[in-house]
Every structure is written in structure tokens, then in C-alpha cells.
Fold:
Amino acid sequence: MAPGAGTDRADSEKREAAAAAAEMVEAGMTVGLGTGSTVAHLLVSLARRGLDIRCVATSPGTESAARELGLQVEPFGRFEELDIAIDGADQVAPDCWLVKGGGAAHTREKLVAAAARRFVVIVDSSKEVRRITAPVPLELLTFGLASTLARLGSVRVRDGVPPSPDGGVITDWVGDVDDPGHLAATLSATPGVVEHGLFPPDMVSAVVTAGPHGVNVRYRE
Ligand code: 5RP
Structure:
């Protein structure tokens, strides 16, 4: 299934999770906006609240959608820190390891999440998994791509996906993920890897999951 596509039920769960997270934003805050179909609902909920907030976007798509809804989006370079960042995820494990980057925006998403005092993840119930599995998105430098791919081994270049806004090649790790922490460290230490889509639990402040029985918020702070 293409990123962003989904069933009606998944879509309404995304909308509910996004609406709950929008309530965590207060007037005067600086807000990091993620990327994807769940974040598209967040933008609508935030715009409806009409708060005086300053936003940073993690992708050109989010930036233009947010602006169209009347949200104030500023360059990330203006901020050393953000009050909150809110973003979707492709997988959320029970210990709060995440996989992100189904929409190829994980590099900017990780930078924005890392700058935020609180990082809130919004997902529909299909994203809750018992354990993290491949694919894990990767952004690779174009320079030396063939040798980076050879060093990594179990990686597939994503078909028909344009380079990231920063020029990186979007690929996926398709090998084993026995220990997300070990894989994250290995990928981070591999020359040519710009960023991987494994987000560690200590980056996550809360996970807002909407399911058939309503919205559940798990706090990690
Ligand atoms: C984009 C992402 C998205 O947050 C992730 O793919 C979830 O997308 P969606 O909300 O459309 O299900 O990491 O890079």
C-alpha cells in the first residue's frame, strides 16, 4: 500500500489521534510539524484552533499544506529548540522504538524531533507492532552510492521516489531487525548513511494511538 493510503477506519483513527495531539499545543508555542497522512489531519485540527503559534515543517508538502490552512511556517534555522513536535510513524513497538520515513522525510523529521522538548507520535492502531521489522527507511548520500549500498548489503533503493529535499537517495533496509538499538548504531556508523528511520524511545515523549475503542495516550516523560 502506498504511504498515506489506507482504509476509512484507519483514516478516521488518524484523524482522532491528530485531534487529540492538537489539544496538547498551546498559544505561543513553537511547533514542529511532521509529514504524512496523519499529520495532514493534525494541520487541519491545529488550524481550526486558531492559536498564535510558530511552526517548522519537516517537508515541502507539509509546509505548503500548513500555509494553505493559515498556519505560520518559518525556516527551521530560526530556532535552536522547539516546544513540541508532532509526527506520525510507520511502526511503534511496545518499548516505543519507532520506524519512520515511509514518506521519505525521516531525516528532517528526526532533526525536528531532536530539537523538540516534547516529541508526540500520532498513529492509528495498525501502527502498533509487537516488534520492529523491516523495511527501515534510509537516506543515503548520492556520492559513493554504489559502495555504500555494497557495504550495507540488505538495502533496496526505493522505486520511483525522488531524492529528498536535501538531495539524498531514499532506500530501505530490508535485512533482519533483531535489536533496533544495535541496528540503529550500525547504520549510524556506516559512512554514506545520512539518516535512518529508527527513532529511539528516549526521543519520544508520548504516543497517541487511536483505535476501535477510542484514543489512548502513553507518556514516556
Ligand atoms: C514520513 C513518516 C510518516 O510519519 C509515516 O510514514 C506515517 O505516515 P502516515 O501518517 O501517512 O501513515 O515517517 O516520512
